[in-house]
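Milestone 3.1: sequence recovery, worked example.
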């Protein structure tokens, strides 16, 4: 079958820098890419306040994404972190959701969905946790709100876990793969020109291998999946140790 690729853009909100996002949008239209756009319904993260525009204008833009067949995913509720927990993915040590009760998380997700609907959009059916941080209560809250697909996880293929379909997000820059389904995640606000050009060239070479999230099929978790996940954490820990080692040397100097 060969490898298949998806692209996910994180942190779409009414205060994003339109020029930084538009170059991605133009690229997607040119090559008929159907991305996942992780959209914050009620952004309160001051780090993401870049440009001012009306909420109505923003949601009209989001509506055009849905009309284009793009996946507009629910990216938390307000993107404000409440603790330093990494949740079940153990990737980033802060979270908007981890530690809250099922009832509290169900309410936050329901409020986010309501904002979508109040602005004339179809309710989202895919969830993207801010900073990849979610717990088992989050999964119950998603099911309570009829959201049954999560864009996250570290296996090499989509899989089922706790009654939800997980479409893994394993890459943060393009990498050629022989097998599997690979989501490449970008944050347009911080993507450099060099990184964007790298993506552009990758799409030019592999445009026929990009798919939409609804085209993915889950499969059973195999040995290759488990080995990949273990390898991811080993590499991540080595990278962190290298950073700490460099910091220690700088302090000594």
């Amino acid at each position: 079958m060969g490898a298949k690729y998806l692209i996910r853009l994180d942190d779409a909100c009414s205060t994003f820098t339109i020029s930084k996002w538009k170059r991605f949008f133009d690229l997607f239209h040119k090559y008929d890419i159907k991305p996942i756009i992780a959209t914050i319904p009620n952004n309160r993260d001051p780090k993401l306040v870049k440009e001012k525009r009306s909420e109505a204008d923003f949601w009209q833009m989001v509506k055009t994404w849905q009309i284009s067949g793009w996946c507009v995913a629910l990216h938390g509720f307000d993107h404000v972190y409440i603790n330093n927990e990494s949740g079940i993915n153990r990737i980033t040590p802060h979270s908007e959701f981890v530690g809250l009760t099922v009832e509290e998380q169900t309410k936050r997700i329901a409020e986010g969905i309501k904002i979508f609907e109040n602005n004339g959009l179809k309710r989202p059916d895919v969830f993207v946790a801010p900073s990849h941080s979610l717990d088992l209560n989050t999964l119950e809250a998603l099911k309570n709100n009829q959201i049954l697909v999560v864009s996250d996880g570290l296996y090499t293929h989509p899989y089922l876990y706790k009654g939800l379909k997980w479409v893994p997000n394993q890459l943060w820059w393009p990498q050629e793969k022989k097998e599997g389904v690979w989501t490449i995640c970008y944050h347009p606000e911080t993507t450099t020109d060099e990184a964007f050009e790298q993506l552009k060239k990758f799409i030019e070479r592999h445009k026929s291998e990009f798919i939409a999230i609804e085209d993915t099929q889950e499969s059973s978790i195999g040995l290759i999946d488990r080995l990949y996940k273990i390898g991811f954490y080993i590499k991540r820990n080595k990278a962190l140790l290298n950073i700490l080692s460099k910091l220690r040397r700088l302090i000594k100097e």
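The first helix runs from residue 18 to 31. Residues 77 and 145 are 13 Å apart (CA to CA).
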